[in-house]
Write a structure and sequence with these properties.
Helix content is 39%, strand content 16%. It has 17 helices and 16 strands. β2, α1 and β3 form a beta-alpha-beta unit.
Length: 414
């Protein structure tokens, strides 16, 4: 079923196809791209996905689409608050046939002719197939492929298709299919310069179709929720880390260990985000081993709203992400926009794009706790250089890491 709201007044229609879009995804690129295609570019935009309940999310699996508007508001509250004007179409559960979703095939078969731009996220065999179906039924339509590229995944994946047992034959068939798909696509964007170069070198797409389009924040939404950004002097001496606390990917133990033996002086550390149940005993053991840190290191749990999360960024001076792997995290854009100096592990592939090649942030090795301790100690001892760095970081983010600016990169191709 489709959720209709005030339209954009244009006849051109944009569809973003992301099958796993739960409520939280509306604040990320699956929701923000079609929303800003509507808001900035003037399309009538629809996000096509399966239906997920807010209680269970993606872990609970896709649900039959609801006809109850109140239930939809409950399961997708961000539809009204974060992406007003964006439509959603929830697909029925019809199962898979070989390598594709029956519901997607049927949706494109019926609606392709009325879609001016089909936006696909991720480069893989399934989306290639959907692109073929779309162009078959609408040869004049345009495909926008957003890579959302995970370098670690692609480095471990030798083939996009598993076509034949004979590797040489399978490799050539895959190459022909990919060439044909690239001919059908109007534009391909990567979020980071590292991802752009990797994709260009490995898959050899037509260079004129390939662009850098960073993820970003919704600047208008931030201004509505946080009218005044704190100056450096108004900020607090806070080191902030945001994410799924205790998740193996986030590697929060590294920052915990780094600050455990530092003289934090008047600095504090905040871990903001839902805390994994299995991680809670580690937190208690941490406090038992370092009892003085109960007043210095805080695990605050999940924020109740975007506004609450933004206030943490607004208060903080340093943002630290110790992840074992990341693509292009939204939290990094948010931190930069609020003038947090960025400390990132060397496993964050978008480091160069997020920091303008290291001008507005510093990278440390995932295996080097001493290096992280040294960086933190420098800023704790003296904030003189930090003041200049945070101001430049914020200025860079406002020019380069907002959806309002990024989405405009698509205009010449649409």
């Amino acid at each position: 079923m489709a959720i209709k709201s005030e339209g954009s007044g244009t006849n051109k229609k944009w569809v973003t196809l992301v099958l796993h879009a739960e409520n939280l995804e509306l604040r990320k690129d699956p929701g923000q791209i079609p929303y800003h295609a509507y808001k900035v570019l003037g399309f009538e935009s629809t996000l096509v996905t399966y239906y997920y309940s807010i209680e269970k999310g993606r872990s609970g699996g896709a649900q039959p689409p609801s006809e109850d508007s109140e239930k939809i508001k409950k399961d997708y509250p961000f539809l009204e608050t974060e992406v007003p004007g964006l439509k959603m179409h929830f697909l029925p559960l019809k199962g898979r046939k070989r390598f594709y979703e029956r519901a997607v095939f049927e949706y494109l078969k019926i609606n392709a002719k009325n879609i001016d731009v089909l936006n696909l996220l991720h480069f893989g065999s399934e989306n290639i197939f959907y692109g073929f179906i779309y162009k078959y039924y609408n040869p004049k339509g345009k495909i926008y492929l957003k890579l959302d590229i995970d370098l670690d995944f692609y480095n471990k994946t030798e083939r996009i298709f598993q076509i034949a047992k004979l590797p040489i034959i399978g490799k050539w068939i895959e190459w022909i299919i990919i060439r044909f798909f690239f001919n059908l696509v109007s534009i391909i964007s990567a979020e980071s310069s590292a991802g752009l170069m990797y994709f260009k070198n490995r898959f050899k797409p037509p260079t004129p179709k390939l662009i850098l389009l960073p993820n970003g924040v919704d600047e208008d939404r931030i201004k509505a929720l946080v009218p005044v950004l704190r100056t450096f002097e108004e900020k607090e001496n806070i080191i902030l880390s945001v994410g799924r606390i205790g998740n193996i990917q986030k590697n929060n133990e590294m920052l915990m260990e780094a600050v455990s033996t530092l003289d934090l002086k008047d600095w504090k550390v905040f871990f903001v985000g839902p805390i994994e149940k299995e991680f809670l005993p580690k937190v208690e053991r941490y406090y038992e081993q370092y009892p003085k840190l109960r007043e210095k290191v805080f695990f605050v749990g999940a924020s109740t709203s975007p506004q609450e999360l933004y206030e943490y960024y607004n208060r903080a001076k340093i943002f630290c992400l110790t992840s074992r792997w990341e693509g292009f995290p939204l939290v990094c854009c948010e931190a930069a926009y609020f003038g947090n100096y960025l400390l990132y592990s060397n496993k964050i592939n978008a480091f160069e794009t997020l920091t303008d090649n290291g001008k507005y942030g510093t990278q440390f090795s995932i295996n080097d706790i001493e290096a992280l301790k040294y960086l933190l100690m420098q800023f704790i001892e003296s904030t003189d250089s930090l003041k200049i760095k945070t101001s430049l970081c914020q200025e860079f983010a406002k020019k380069n890491l907002t959806w309002q600016e990024s989405i405009k990169h698509l205009i010449p191709y649409l």
